[in-house]
Write a structure and sequence with these properties.
The chain is α/β, with parallel strands linked by helices. It has 2 domains: 252 residues, Type I PLP-dependent aspartate aminotransferase-like (Major domain) (Aspartate Aminotransferase, domain 2, 3-Layer(aba) Sandwich); 130 residues, Aspartate Aminotransferase, domain 1 (Alpha-Beta Complex). A 7-stranded mixed sheet has the order 4-10-9-8-7-5-6, sandwiched between helices. Helix 3 runs parallel beside helix 10, helix 6 runs parallel beside helix 7 and helix 11 packs parallel to helix 14. The protein binds pyridoxal-5'-phosphate. The site of pyridoxal-5'-phosphate (PLP) has 15 residues, from helix 4.
């Protein structure tokens, strides 16, 4: 059969785009060659509905071992008693928790989507907002940090069945202990979605939410640097508090309910090639080198935030504790919106995404901010010196968004610099 040149040419073009640019999207990363190999392996051919040892198909002896390895490594990474590695994505992991904990129409609380929350935490166009009843908590407009006092007031008033910590554009450490206390006060399940900082948590650089939360979800492809996918974890299994009883009158354990929610609740066959790649990534994250990587991610983010602030940019909450930051463009350039900023930076091969800032005065299509993160650049070997240069280049582009000559000059410089920062070998 003839090779599919149409697609493979596009894959090569994407490869070149990734090689020559500066990748600053906070949710992206570059996986290792071994993660890539596992994902592109024959395990994609296998149907394995069910769980290791309990499958609905024959021939699962080997994928059982691979899924078991993924589970064991993930448990070790976060000190978990129970995990599920089958969710196809972070949003799927969350949907499975919602299906387990909530009934249609039940109230839950999550960080306001305009202030860093994720669409799977209650957006009106996502199942979380369509099927269930979301209630938002907010950031303090002065500090740019979660307002836990207000969260407690809202929880006492609304009596949600679940409270969610974690977000997509929040650069500060979370007070999980306080959130657990609030959840306990109103009898709610406390769930943490650590999709963004999971890699830094695995490396011990941020607090481990498993110590405080009933249930934790994550993606595997952000700071954790694995294949695209999701996982669900618990530090300790517990009886379903809502008292759903089996026919024999036994209350089911949360682990059983969560397993059933993933399959057959919201998914069919698991992606065993991706699960094998997850196992490789978890194995990598257990190595001492990963800790060094995570430390550098954090250092690079701190330097990038500092350098931008030195140049007059407002960073929401005036800094970062993790790998990401939100730039409020209004302070330095009141007329410049996030959409124009994103387009200009992408023209210079500096990839970022526009993002609403807390209490934004512009719409989600325009926004007043851009979100930046350092996981991908750090994988390529970037250190503090390159972060200083990145801040300088971003500033040069944003000061000259309509000057094509300057943008072209920056792009050439970006491409030249990135020649010295290799990625995958293929
Ligand atoms: C990225 C993200 C997700 C969703 O992950 P997908 O794999 O894109 O579905 C969920 N929650 C949070 C907080 C995220 O940042």
């Amino acid at each position: 059969m003839k090779r599919d040149e149409e697609i493979f040419n596009l894959i090569e073009k994407e490869h070149q785009r990734q090689l020559k640019g500066m990748e600053l999207i906070a949710s992206e990363n570059f996986v290792s060659d071994e993660v890539m190999q596992a994902m592109g392996s024959c395990m994609t051919n296998k149907y394995a509905e069910g769980y290791p040892g309990h499958r609905y198909y024959g021939g699962c002896e080997i994928v059982d071992q691979s899924e078991e390895l993924a589970r064991t490594r993930l448990k070790q990474l976060f000190d978990a008693e129970w995990v599920n590695v089958q969710p196809h994505s972070g949003a799927q992991a969350n949907a499975a928790v919602f299906l387990t904990v909530l009934n249609p129409g039940d109230k839950f609380m999550g960080l306001n989507l305009d202030q860093g929350g994720h669409l799977s935490h209650g957006s009106a166009v996502n199942t979380s907002g369509i099927i269930y009843h979301p209630i938002a908590y907010n950031l303090d407009p002065k500090t740019g940090r979660v307002n836990y006092d207000e969260m407690e007031e809202i929880a006492l008033r609304e009596k949600p069945k679940m409270i969610i910590g974690g977000g997509s554009a929040y650069s500060r450490e979370w007070d999980y202990e306080r959130m657990r206390a609030i959840a306990d006060k109103v009898g709610a399940i406390f769930m943490v979605d650590m999709a963004h900082p999971a890699g830094l948590i695995a490396a011990g650089l941020l607090k481990n939410p498993l110590k405080y939360a009933h249930i934790v979800t994550s993606t595997t492809h952000k700071t954790l640097r694995g294949p695209r996918g999701g996982v669900i974890l618990m530090n300790k299994d517990f009886e379903n508090p809502w008292g759903k009883k089996t026919k024999k009158g036994i209350t089911k354990m949360m682990s059983q309910l969560l397993d059933s929610a993933v399959f057959p609740g919201i998914q069919g066959g698991p992606l065993e090639h991706v699960i094998a790649a997850k196992a490789v990534a978890f194995g990598e994250a257990l190595q001492p080198e990963f800790k060094e990587y995570a430390k550098q991610v954090k250092k690079n983010a701190a330097v990038l935030a500092d350098e931008l602030m030195k140049r007059g940019y407002k960073i929401v909450s005036d800094g970062t504790d993790n790998h990401s930051m939100l730039v409020d463009l209004r302070t330095k350039f009141p007329e410049l919106d996030g959409k124009v900023a994103e387009t200009a930076l992408v023209s210079a091969d500096i990839t970022v995404n526009k993002n609403m800032v807390p209490y934004d005065t512009r719409s989600a299509f325009k926004t007043s901010g851009i979100r930046l993160g350092t996981p991908a650049m750090t994988t390529r070997g970037a250190k503090e010196d390159l972060m200083i240069k990145v801040a300088e280049l971003i500033d040069e582009v944003l000061t000259n968004v309509t000057d094509e000559k300057i943008i072209t000059k920056v792009r050439v410089e970006v491409n030249n610099i990135m020649k010295n920062y290799p990625i995958f070998a293929f």
